Structures are given as C-alpha cells and as structure tokens.
C-alpha cells in the first residue's frame, strides 16, 4: 500500500538518520512512479519492473523509517561488464540534504570495477566528467528526447515497398530471431529483459520478418503520464522502421501524447518524427566510465529507455 507523503521534513541534521538508502523492491514502484510523474518524466512502470527483475539490486531508493520514498537512482546491469545509470531524483523539499549523493554513491558501489554509462542532462556534463567518474564523452551522437502532447496520425506514415517483409505481432516463436537481431545491433545478450519486454502490460511489440529472419522489431508502451512511448525500435532500413512505427501507433490508439527517443546520427529517425509532427525537446550527452560502446546506430530508430539501457 502506498505511503502518503508527509509535509514534515526533519531538520538537515536529522535527515540522514531518519532516511536511509536501500535496494528498491517491486512494491516500491507506485511511490517511485508518483515522484516521476511529479517531475513530468515519461517513464514506464512495467519497463522499470522488468529491469528490476533482471537486476534486483540495480535500483536504490531513499526511504524513511515509515516507508516513504523521497528519492531514487539506478545503475542497472545490462551485461556482466556493463551497467547503465539513471532515474536520479530527489523530492524538491529534500534537495540539498545530502541524500542525493548517498543514493548515487550506493549505486556506484553496485557497479564495482566495471564499465558504466549515463545520459547527462544539459549543464551536468562537466559535473559527471570531472567529479563523478565518467571521463569519456561520446562524440558520435547525442541522445534526443522527442515529445508532443498532440495526437499523432499514423496515416502520415507509409507501410509500402517492404519487399517481402511482413509485420507480425510478437509470438514466442519469434523470440530466438529477435534475440539474435538485437545482439547484432547492441553487441551483448539481452534475452531475459527482451522476453519480459514482450510480456509487459499496456504495451505492444511487433516483429518485421523476411524469409523467416528478423529484420526489425519495435515496442510501444503507455507511460506514467499517459503518453505512448516507442522504444526500442530497430530496423534494417527506414522503410521497415516506418512500417513498424505505423503499426505500433495503430495498435495503441488511446494514448495522450507521444514519446520517441533517438540517437542524433540516425537522420532517418528524425525524418520519421517530422512526418508525425514530433519536435525535439532536449539533447543528452552520453558519457562512459571506462570505454565507449559500439552499436549499429543506423539501425536504432528509437532507444530502449533513456534511464535503463544505453541503446
């Protein structure tokens, strides 16, 4: 049962004794989503739930002795040697108390000596580079947040000229080919989270198939703000990506607003968003702890999640 937020904030000298950092549980999700809604962030509850299943110690929260959650941060294990950070938030009335540093440091301990990546919001790149242990800055692309509160019309997209490609609702028989295709793009195994992704509530996943092989796939989910969010969306070419995107939008007609986060060096993804009338809202800087990641970004038309996975 969600814990009601209290208006009483302990004095700074008492905050750290009243609140502690601990691993988040699945039962904490409603409170975390309340904080994310207050921040007007288009996170997806089921997506966070899936990644928490993959890495049960990957998300930390700041919680009172009574169970009230006032902040969070994550570094989720994407592979044995790669973690990804995000979800960093502290309720405004607790900012400046030192709790944010505590939860961030707890997440960094979870990484150990391994590589990690983050997306830095504007104005924070120097902080992460010089003081937080992320000295390597991505120069090939920026991560782009694209959003509109208006309705998007799938009729503005085409599904012709697919040259033998069929778009099919994902079934268990598609999973081995989908896993292999995903590996070919990001370079590491994500079987468990992709399988969970296909089962999430308020989501739809479709696969593009040619001669029995996967040549693209995509998912649309309902965010905590009621918008439709596309991601991941990977495809061999623009025509397949456009057909998948059209199908995804048509499959979930009752959303309010539309989100699709992209990499800046995939100009074809930008053209698809222009067809839909979805503007660029913000660019984030990708940063790494030890080394850059390599991915086939020309096939990445929408990122999986800005807070949980690099691509």
Order of helices and strands: HEHHEEEHEHEEEHHEEEHEEHEE
Low-confidence stretches: 1-10
Shape: globular
Number of strands: 15
Instruction: Please tell me the overall pLDDT.
Output: 94
Largest sheet: 15 strands, mixed
Instruction: Supply Rg.
Output: 20 Å
Give the assembly state of these chains: single chain
Structure class: alpha+beta
Counting DSSP H or I runs of 4 or more residues, the number of helices is 9
GO molecular function: acyltransferase activity, transferring groups other than amino-acyl groups
Domain N-acetyltransferase: 19-158, 165-310
Protein name: N-acetyltransferase domain-containing protein
InterPro entries: Acyl/Acetyltrans_Enzymes, Acyl_CoA_acyltransferase, GNAT_dom, YitH/HolE_GNAT
What would you say this structure looks like, in words?
It is a single chain. With 311 residues, this protein is of the alpha+beta class. The protein is 29% helix and 30% strand. It is built from nine helices and 15 strands. The protein has helices at residues 12-18, 29-38, 45-54, 99-111, 125-130, 175-186, 191-197, 238-251, 267-276; strands at residues 19-23, 59-64, 69-79, 82-90, 115-120, 136-137, 143-148, 166-169, 203-210, 213-222, 228-235, 258-260, 262-263, 280-288, 300-302. It has a 15-stranded mixed sheet that branches. A hairpin with a 5-residue loop joins β10 (213-222) and β11 (228-235). The longest helix has 14 residues, at 238-251. This is N-acetyltransferase domain-containing protein. Residues 19-158, 165-310 form the N-acetyltransferase domain. One of its GO terms (molecular function) is acyltransferase activity, transferring groups other than amino-acyl groups.
């Amino acid at each position: 049962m969600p814990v009601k937020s209290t208006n009483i904030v302990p004095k700074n000298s008492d905050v750290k004794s009243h609140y502690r950092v601990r691993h988040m549980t699945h039962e904490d999700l409603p409170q975390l989503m309340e904080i994310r809604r207050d921040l007007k962030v288009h996170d997806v509850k089921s997506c966070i739930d899936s990644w928490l299943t993959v890495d049960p110690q990957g998300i930390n929260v700041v919680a009172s002795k009574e169970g009230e959650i006032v902040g969070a941060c994550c570094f989720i294990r994407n592979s044995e040697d790669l973690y990804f950070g995000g979800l960093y938030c502290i309720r405004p009335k607790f900012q400046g108390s030192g709790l944010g540093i505590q939860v961030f440091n707890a997440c960094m301990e979870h990484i150990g000596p391994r590589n990690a990546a983050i997306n830095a919001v504007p104005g924070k790149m120097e902080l992460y580079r010089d003081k937080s242990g992320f000295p390597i800055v991505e120069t090939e692309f920026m991560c782009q947040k694209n959003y509109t509160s208006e309705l998007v019309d799938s009729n503005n997209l085409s599904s012709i000229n697919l040259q033998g490609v069929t778009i099919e609702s994902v079934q268990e028989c598609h999973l081995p080919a989908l896993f292999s295709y995903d590996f070919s793009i990001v370079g590491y195994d994500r079987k468990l989270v992709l399988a969970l992704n296909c089962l999430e509530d308020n989501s739809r996943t479709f696969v593009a198939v040619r001669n029995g092989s996967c040549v693209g796939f995509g998912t649309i989910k309902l965010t905590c703000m009621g918008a439709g969010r596309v991601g991941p969306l990977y495809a061999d070419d623009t025509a397949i990506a456009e057909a998948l995107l059209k199908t995804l939008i048509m499959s979930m007609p009752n959303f309010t607003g539309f989100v699709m986060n992209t990499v800046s060096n995939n100009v074809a993804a930008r053209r698809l968003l222009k067809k839909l009338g979805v503007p660029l809202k913000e660019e984030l800087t990708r940063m790494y702890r030890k080394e850059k990641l390599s991915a086939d970004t020309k096939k990445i038309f929408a990122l999986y999640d800005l807070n949980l996975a690099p691509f």
